[in-house]
Amino acid sequence: MLSKNFYFQTIGRVIFIAVTALLFAFLMVWNNYVYSFLMLIVLVFQAYYLIRYVNETNRKIAYFFDAIKNEDFTLRFPEKLSIKSLEELNHSLNMLNEMIQRIHLKNQTQERFYQEILKQADIGILAINDKGHILFANPRLELMLNYTPLNHIKQLAQIDEDLYHLFSKLRPFERRVFPLTNEREKIDLAIKSSSFNLDGQELLLVVIQDIHQELDEKETESWTRLIRVLTHEIMNSITPITSISDSILKYHEKGGTLAKSDFEYKKKMETTIKGLEVIKDQGANLMGFVQSYRSFLNVPVPDKKIIRAINILEKVKLLVGQNQEFSNTSIELDLEIQDLELFIDEKQITQVLINLCKNALQSLSNRKNSYIKLIAGINTEGQKYIEVKDNGPGIPPELINEIFVPFFTTKNSGTGVGLSLSKQILRMHGGGLKVNSVPNENTTFTLLF
């Protein structure tokens, strides 16, 4: 309809110009200069209005496309005009503008939706072009690598030189596992790559996931199975030995038949009894040793309740501070949020905190101006946490990955269950236990909920 009106309007104006030109020529031939001059004026005005009409239409269309190009949808054309064709043109342009605006807003909404998904994703995502420029990196990746902003893979060399070399040689559809150690912790990265085409440009899409927790859970599960087998076999072997030894001792204590005249035989029997006493004692010790490992397997399901952090920290401070042997060490509380609440099993978490504090006290026994800080708050990821921090000698780097392994201990009298049991309790709370240690400066155990 619009094109027909414009067509007829233009054809009509051209016809009027042609008729006016013919009249002008006819009057000039008949030497009627007055009327020919008037026809000339009319001809000029008709040509002017034709050019204006065409230019006005072209200008509106040009304005419209410039506005669309600049994503400006506020442009509106008047729809009440004396010229019907221009009125219909303006109405059509306004309708087209509204339709494009709706599509644009819908695309923006979808883009924000996808961006929010990428931001909230628990995996790192980045897109790299063939020159190594990082076109996109979500916040999770920057947090995982503890580096922002990421613009080029060369920046990865500042995090870890080997990580940069891995990315510089990474090709589509490859899978790698990379252990990354930073100032906060050690994480294991599973790296997967694929390729996609965007606007004619081939890009490398890399997905990075921290699988440290999954590996840790598998490791703990393996140790749990091993301990279950060991305890079963050892208990089956020790129980009869202890029982028989105890029965023989009771028999002799009640005055069983013994040839008193035979001094040598009596001496042998006394030696036998002493040996049986040793067997009994050793069996009892071994049973107690095995029982301590059973506690690692029989952690009850947490009975969670809402507990104020200040209450549990003050309780731990009171319990640990009773030990006069470590009176030279100060215990300090630091709450970033005074009314912080935790959904935990109070008994189990108290047990974990006391165990960590006792370990810290033992490491501080020969240190002046020693302290233990109990810190509670919420980290940048929105997780609630409690930290046990001391200024002791720290944990040697070669042992930092061994301290949570069952059976492992650096103490002469330790069983090596405490830290592994603490980590198991935190895992059952849906959290984790992490450690960060700087030798001869400080050690921090972090309970994450």
TrEMBL record:
<keyword id="KW-0808">Transferase</keyword>
<dbReference type="InterPro" id="IPR036890">
    <property type="entry name" value="HATPase_C_sf"/>
</dbReference>
<dbReference type="GO" id="GO:0005524">
    <property type="term" value="F:ATP binding"/>
</dbReference>
<keyword id="KW-0547">Nucleotide-binding</keyword>
<dbReference type="InterPro" id="IPR005467">
    <property type="entry name" value="His_kinase_dom"/>
</dbReference>
<dbReference type="GO" id="GO:0004673">
    <property type="term" value="F:protein histidine kinase activity"/>
</dbReference>
<feature type="domain" description="Histidine kinase">
    <location>
        <begin position="229"/>
        <end position="449"/>
    </location>
</feature>
<dbReference type="InterPro" id="IPR003594">
    <property type="entry name" value="HATPase_dom"/>
</dbReference>
<protein>
    <recommendedName>
        <fullName>histidine kinase</fullName>
        <ecNumber>2.7.13.3</ecNumber>
    </recommendedName>
</protein>
<dbReference type="InterPro" id="IPR004358">
    <property type="entry name" value="Sig_transdc_His_kin-like_C"/>
</dbReference>
<dbReference type="InterPro" id="IPR035965">
    <property type="entry name" value="PAS-like_dom_sf"/>
</dbReference>
<keyword id="KW-0418">Kinase</keyword>
<keyword id="KW-0067">ATP-binding</keyword>
<dbReference type="Pfam" id="PF13188">
    <property type="entry name" value="PAS_8"/>
</dbReference>
<dbReference type="GO" id="GO:0000160">
    <property type="term" value="P:phosphorelay signal transduction system"/>
</dbReference>
<feature type="domain" description="PAS">
    <location>
        <begin position="110"/>
        <end position="149"/>
    </location>
</feature>
<keyword id="KW-0812">Transmembrane</keyword>
<keyword id="KW-1133">Transmembrane helix</keyword>
<dbReference type="InterPro" id="IPR000014">
    <property type="entry name" value="PAS"/>
</dbReference>
<dbReference type="Pfam" id="PF02518">
    <property type="entry name" value="HATPase_c"/>
</dbReference>
<keyword id="KW-0472">Membrane</keyword>
<feature type="transmembrane region" description="Helical">
    <location>
        <begin position="7"/>
        <end position="27"/>
    </location>
</feature>
<feature type="transmembrane region" description="Helical">
    <location>
        <begin position="33"/>
        <end position="51"/>
    </location>
</feature>
<keyword id="KW-0902">Two-component regulatory system</keyword>
